[in-house]
Design goal:
The complex is a heterodimer. Chain A has 15 helices and 11 strands. Chain A is of the alpha/beta class. Chain A has a single domain, classed as Amidase signature (AS) domain (Amidase signature (AS) enzymes), CATH 3.90.1300. In chain A, strands 1-3-2-4-6-5-10-11-9-7-8 form an 11-stranded mixed β-sheet, with helices on both faces. Chain A is globular and about 65 Å long. Chain B folds into 3 domains: 282 residues, no CATH class; 107 residues, no CATH class; 61 residues, Arc Repressor Mutant, subunit A. Classes of the chains: A alpha/beta, B alpha+beta.
Chain lengths: 476, 477
């Protein structure tokens, strides 16, 4: 597998005419064909990609200026609405759905000349941590085909690891960018909540959903994020960009004197020793580079998974209500009455995990249970936000493992949803509170990748990326 | 029958006259649009579509707050209300629950000369659903989503109402307030304002009976009739020893009765949840001041103004019922002429359908011209320079022949010269009567005026004729 050059280099060479966008497309399609056994890809919008590549090459030939991602192929998680093919969310419900509009994030990437070459597999509706919940097929870990690539952006992370494209888009509601990034040894960024528009991305849990990027390096992940970020009139929860932007190609970060907190609750008995060893190694590297390391505590963190599995299914049950078989998507044509049409369409269109979350969500929102579950979860959510704010008064960044374990075997947790949910234990805190986090490769344990999770205060995405780049420099 | 006390609360859905929908930049006036032409990915509930709050709707709801004698809440937020229905594309309606945009306020109604305050519990800003159409004889239903996402203000009164006529008066007064505050187009025929009435009866003061809710009433008359029917039905039921069931009822306009639709026991659990896609709405003092500045003149002030220039109550209410007419009348005429002339022109608008419709159809400049010219005629009329049929005749010429009052008054002068000739002729033809008048026999003058009227084929003004007779006989200067 040949490494892709840095994204900025690719675009620069396309602008100079040294690389043809059309050839880059062909290379990506070739890689897709050669890595089929990993089942990372659901569909390939080949015709549209080639047409866009030709346009860019023609523009360059005429001496025109092309964007800063000109001709750069990318893989979109298949819950991003895109033109040129289907958008399925890896669900039977949307198996034949063709989007009438595109996600804002995709539009922004396209404006800078990036070209979508493939739609990546995911856990259906992004419900899961292994990509085993895809209604279509299971994606395999690029380092060990018997293991999962993590989820739900498993196809995206695998695509980047397999060099199908230099970057991929992902969504992170509880772990879904960071976990597969860690399991596939790539960089996965979950920015601050609201940094990237969610418009045109199939909603999972609206108050937790964040659009992120996966790439081979922190710099590339940052550049992609820089292009996607910013307020959008189609998403009222979007926030202003950092005035300096998020492109950190020329940014430097001095680790000396930076204050790093190691989260006590993230280094408990749930975390496997092999993982701890790698993470402690990474912390030692940081200390040697001059960072001040201290142990910090976020007392309510052990409740975060419980909070997450109330708020998330509640919003999932609501967001999936629109898939009723009446206007688009799977519709039971044999239904005799309206009620049948609803029941049969949803019965056939949703898999077991979606149904489980719809039931849990409907239950916690139902009258008589709302206060005991949903309202209480929101109270703890507020408490967690306060505790994060308090801890960030003393440290600049928090570090810990991404996952308590290395990539697990396919099928090992599929039958036990609670065991599967534990995979997200160390990550959901960032979604509940909205703070930015990144997963950066931190070496291997028994030939399986381990990721270091770095967490920063709200809106400190640029600092987070600069720091992550500095760490990345240490571990290379 | 023993005395039962009715207790009534009214929920009113007012469609806001925004250009676009509550959460989508799509046209809002579905009255003339073919089905499913005013829709976007947001209205259809496409995957990934997010609601974006329309500031215009917030402003109109805030105007409604001022019209209800309160202010919009500093903090309000939206909730999702879940149920499945083909006209509800997202599987939930975005509405409000605890943190409504309006809490409190009141509407003052006057009935038989007595004022009463009907308090407002709250008003929710929410989106409307689409429309299901069941073609006759067909085994399918058509869905039109043009209306899906149209902004509504759901105004919930407290149960302060105790009779059907009170409820009807409240419904009309609320409609007037929303119309005059420019919150709604208020087209009742197109369901821009719809009423749900909660009715219960009880013998004991302070203890409420079981209520029923009759939904989707779209006229003041049906509000009154439905409540009258419910009071009678519930009273008779209780008198027979029966029990009123908590239920939703519908109004059968043809049969003039309410019918059971579904029991509240089977009512769905709506699983309300805070709407995560729309941040909470925070309004500050500056916003309130801005809205207050925009507030148009409301009915209470209009009533006072019209009473002040001599209208009687019945006329005022008739004029108020036609808000567009009343608004242009007030903005174009008040202060433009002496009150009596302004009043006369107002009465013409109220009573003369042809003039009213002509005036309504005019643009602003035409209305201004019409009023300026009509004022001249009205002044002449109240000064008895022209008679009422002449006044009417002039107004019609102004309205339909686009004649200027100046020209008409020129005609009036030539008329006067013409009548002087007729008077001279009548006096020379009737010397005896003329002599009698000179002697002070005032009965004779009536005869002469009559002769002038006959000769002028009714065109002369009797008072003017009398003046001219006296003048020619040297009785006045």
């Amino acid at each position: 597998m040949d490494d892709w050059p840095a994204i900025a280099d690719i675009a620069g060479r396309v602008q100079k005419g040294e690389l043809k966008a059309v050839d880059l497309m062909k290379h990506s399609f070739d890689m897709i064909a050669r890595t089929k056994e990993f089942e990372a890809i659901i569909s390939v919008p080949e015709a549209r990609a080639m047409a866009r590549a030709k346009e860019i090459d023609a523009k360059v030939a005429k001496g025109g200026k092309v964007g800063r991602l000109a001709g750069v192929p990318f893989v979109a998680k298949d819950n991003f609405l895109t033109f040129g093919g289907k958008t399925t969310a890896a669900s039977h419900m949307l198996e034949n759905f063709e989007a009438p509009y595109q996600a804002t994030a995709v539009n922004k990437l396209e404006i800078e000349g990036a070209i979508c070459v493939a739609k990546a597999n995911l856990d259906a509706w992004a419900h899961g941590s292994s990509t085993e919940n895809s209604d279509f097929f299971v994606t395999k870990n690029p380092y060990d085909k018997t293991r999962v690539p993590g989820g739900s952006s498993g196809g995206s992370a695998t695509s980047v690891a397999l060099k199908i494209a230099p970057f991929a888009t992902g969504t992170d509601t509880g772990s879904s960018v960071r976990l597969p990034a860690a399991f596939c040894n790539v960089v996965g960024l979950k920015p601050t909540y609201g940094a990237v528009s969610r418009s045109g991305v199939v909603a999972m849990a609206s108050s937790l959903d964040v659009i992120g990027s996966l790439a081979g390096t922190v710099e590339d992940a940052a550049l992609v994020f820089d292009v996607m970020a910013g307020t959008d009139e189609l998403d009222s929860t979007t926030i202003e960009r950092d005035p300096k932007g998020y492109d950190i190609q020329s940014a430097t970060f001095d680790l000396r004197g930076s204050k790093i907190g190691v989260i006590k609750e993230y280094m408990g008995p749930e975390v496997e020793e092999t993982v701890k060893k790698q993470i402690n190694g990474a912390i030692k590297q940081l200390a040697e580079a001059g960072a001040q390391i201290s142990e910090v505590s976020i007392p309510s963190l052990p409740f975060s998974l419980a909070v997450y599995y109330i708020i998330c299914p509640a919003e999932v049950s609501s967001n999936l209500a629109r898939y009723d078989g009446q206007r688009y998507g799977l519709s039971a044509s044999d239904a005799k009455e309206l009620e049948d049409s609803y029941n049969l369409s949803r019965e056939r269109g949703f898999g077991a995990e979606a149904k489980r979350r719809i039931m849990i969500g409907s239950h916690v929102l139902s009258s008589g249970y709302y206060d005991a579950y949903y309202k209480k979860a929101q109270t703890v959510r507020t408490k967690l936000i306060n505790e994060y704010e308090a801890v960030f008064k003393n440290v600049d960044f928090l570090v810990g493992p991404v996952s308590p374990t290395p990539p697990f075997k396919i099928g090992a947790r599929a039958k036990d949803p609670l065991q599967m949910y534990l995979s997200d234990l160390l990550m959901v805190g960032s979604n509940i509170t909205g703070v930015p986090s990144i997963s950066v490769p931190a070496g291997f344990s028994n030939d399986l990748p381990v990721g270091l999770q770095i967490i920063a205060p709200m809106r400190a995405d640029r600092q987070l990326l600069s720091f992550a780049k500095a760490f990345e420099g240490l571990s290379k | 029958m023993a005395d039962y006390i009715p207790t009534i609360g009214v929920e009113t859905h007012v469609q806001l006259k925004t250009k676009t929908k509550l959460f989508a930049a799509v046209g809002n006036d579905a009255r003339l649009a073919p089905p499913n032409t005013l829709i976007s990915h947001i209205c259809v509930g496409m995957p990934g579509a997010l609601p974006v709050l329309n500031r215009g709707a917030v402003e109109l709801a805030s105007r409604a707050a001022f019209a209800l004698n309160t202010k919009p809440q500093k903090f309000s937020r939206f909730e999702r209300k879940h149920y499945f229905y083909p006209d509800l594309p997202k599987g939930y309606q975005i509405t409000q629950l605890e943190d409504s945009i309006i809490k409190g306020g009141w509407v003052e109604i006057t009935l038989d000369g007595k004022a009463k305050r009907i308090n407002i519990e709250r008003a929710n800003l929410e989106e409307d659903a689409g429309k299901n159409i069941h073609p006759e004889g067909a085994d399918y239903t058509l869905v039109d989503l043009n209306r899906a996402g149209t902004p509504l203000l759901e105004i919930v009164s407290r149960p302060d109402i105790n009779s059907a006529v009170e409820a009807k008066t409240y419904a009309r007064e609320l409609w007037l307030l929303m119309k005059y505050a420019d919150v709604t187009d208020g087209d009742l025929y197109h369901g821009h304002v719809r009423f749900d009435v909660n009715v219960s009866v009880s013998k004991e003061v302070g203890k409420l009976g079981t209520r029923t809710e009759t939904k989707n009433l779209n006229s003041f008359r049906s509000v009154e009739a439905a409540i009258d029917y419910e009071i009678k039905r519930q009273t008779e039921l209780l008198e027979r020893g029966g029990k009123v069931i908590l239920e939703t009822r519908g109004w059968d306009e043809a049969k003039q009765k309410t019918t059971s639709q579904r029991g509240k026991e089977e009512a769905e659990d709506y699983r309300y949840m805070p709407e995560p896609d729309v941040p909470p709405l925070e309004l500050d003092e500056d916003f309130d001041k801005e809205i207050e500045k925009q507030m148009p003149v409301l009915p209470i002030e209009i009533r006072a103004q019209l009473l002040g220039i001599g209208f009687i109550k019945g006329e005022i209410e008739t004029l108020l019922d036609d808000p567009d007419l009343a608004k242009s009348y007030i903005s174009e005429t008040l202060g433009i002429g002496p009150p009596a002339a302004v009043k006369l022109f107002g009465s013409t608008l109220i009573h003369d359908a042809k003039i009213r419709e002509a005036f309504r159809a005019m643009n602003k400049q035409m209305k201004k011209d019409m009023v300026r010219n009509s004022m001249v005629a009205a002044n002449a009329s109240v000064a008895n320079q022209i008679n009422s049929s002449q006044y009417t005749n002039y107004i019609h010429q102004i309205a339909f022949s686009n004649k200027k009052a100046k020209d008409l008054l020129m005609d009036q002068i030539s008329d006067e010269a013409e009548i002087e000739k007729i008077v001279a002729k009548v006096l020379s033809d009737n010397p005896k009567a003329a002599e009698d008048v000179k002697k002070g026999e005032m009965k004779a003058i009536g005869f002469l005026v009559g002769q002038v009227m006959v000769k002028s084929k009714g065109q002369a003004n009797p008072q003017m004729a009398q003046q001219l007779i006296k003048k020619q006989l040297g009785l006045v200067g």
